[in-house]
Design a protein that fits this description.
375 residues, alpha/beta, Rossmann fold, 2 domains, eight-stranded mixed sheet
Length: 375
């Protein structure tokens, strides 16, 4: 039922204030719910963003019992890249059989962009079985659709409690009708791990990484563009609308492609020609950006994402969490969104807010300045 176990070298999120905060929250929660520890804990992960959060809180969860991580799809791939041991979900997934096999006292659920996510059916099965559930939200985007499924009720599949990474996310949930006393605001644990990776990568050396990853870059500044999906819980959010202030070259309707065209054209008008790397999102198809192939010096998918961002001089993206990770690594980062409202989809980095642009002239000026500073 639980599938084949997969494991890589261990992932360690550290034991700083971030982990202490999560551990304290879990300890209080155990008292509130009357749990006797150690207990059996099952964690379900389906999405890469949820995988980052889940991996970071594993250490705190293990303080309270035996934890088994179950995963599928892009979430499983991300866990593997982080070195987290997991068990593959059966396909098709049967939530009741899962609970009979795993016998958990607590289920921790990562949220997913899929309307028919396994997490939704597992929440229902846990309600019927009287098993406590915690949902983890990894960022501010699409909060209103995390627990909606394919229905109209935004909280149809909401778990018993939610761990939110910011006050903004908490307030959105409260506005949707979720009880504030069932929300715990906890720091995103993944950023503690990224900060540790920065120290490790700094010891290896940026120049060493640059030569390994971008051997043909020479003395040119390395600019990495972080691709995203032009789709999600609400596909209409990811296509051109009347309020777009960035429109690309005119023929594209997809959000990411429009922003990519704006960035490529702004770079093309700059006095300094960078070495341009397209970093694909785990959910991107390889041929999605084929029409721009000649405008990139390199396409990256398999390389370690944090190494790519640390070795770069400039990282440009939309609202992906990898952009925040790049900021934590100390790399010069810029967010570009096609309309102002989308800046609220961007997670503030622990190091401070990320500069965000949605007007062509301001984007061009910011890119020119960034390239000059790294020439």
């Amino acid at each position: 039922m639980l599938g084949q176990q997969k494991c890589s070298p261990p992932y360690d999120a550290g034991h700083g204030s971030c982990m202490s905060a999560i551990n304290d929250t879990l300890s209080k929660l155990c008292v509130t719910l009357g749990f006797e520890t150690p207990m059996s804990i099952s964690m379900l992960v389906e999405d890469p963003g949820a995988a980052n959060f889940a991996a970071g809180m594993l250490g705190a969860l293990k303080e309270h019992g035996a934890v088994t991580v179950h995963a599928c799809g892009a979430g499983a791939s991300q866990l593997g890249s982080l070195g987290v041991c997991f068990q593959s979900l059966d396909d098709p997934f049967d939530a009741r059989c899962f609970l009979e096999s795993a016998k958990p006292s607590l289920v921790v659920l990562g949220t997913s962009e899929d309307t028919d996510a396994a997490a939704h059916t597992l929440v229902v099965a846990c309600r019927e079985a009287g098993i406590a559930t915690i949902g983890i939200i990894d960022g501010p985007a699409n909060t209103a659709s995390r627990f909606r499924g394919d229905g109209q009720d935004a909280l149809e599949y909401a778990p018993d409690r939610i761990f939110a990474p910011s006050v903004t996310v908490r307030d959105t949930l409260v506005d949707l009708g979720y009880s504030e006393d069932r929300i715990d605001v906890v720091p995103h644990p993944h950023f503690a791990a990224v900060a540790e990776q920065r120290e490790i990568l700094s010891c290896e050396g940026k120049d060493v990484l640059r030569r390994k990853l971008f051997p043909d870059a020479g003395d040119r500044p390395v600019l990495v563009f972080l691709a995203e999906r032009s789709g999600g819980l609400d596909p209409d959010q990811f296509c051109r609308t009347h309020d777009y202030t960035l429109v690309g070259r005119g023929g594209e309707q997809r959000r990411t492609h429009i922003v990519l065209e704006e960035v490529l054209d702004a770079v093309g008008r700059a006095d300094i020609a960078p070495y341009i790397v397209l970093r694909l999102h785990p959910k991107n198809d390889a041929d999605e950006f084929a029409s721009y192939q000649t405008e990139f010096d390199m396409v990256s998918r398999e390389e370690n994402a944090l190494e790519v961002c640390f070795g770069a001089d400039i990282v440009v993206g939309l609202t992906t969490i990898l952009l925040v990770e790049a900021a934590v690594l100390g790399t010069h980062v810029l967010s570009v969104v096609p309309r102002e409202v989308e800046r609220h989809w961007l997670f503030d980095a622990p190091t401070g807010p990320i500069s965000c642009f949605w007007k062509r002239d301001e984007l061009a000026g910011a890119l020119e300045e960034a390239l000059r500073s790294h020439a």
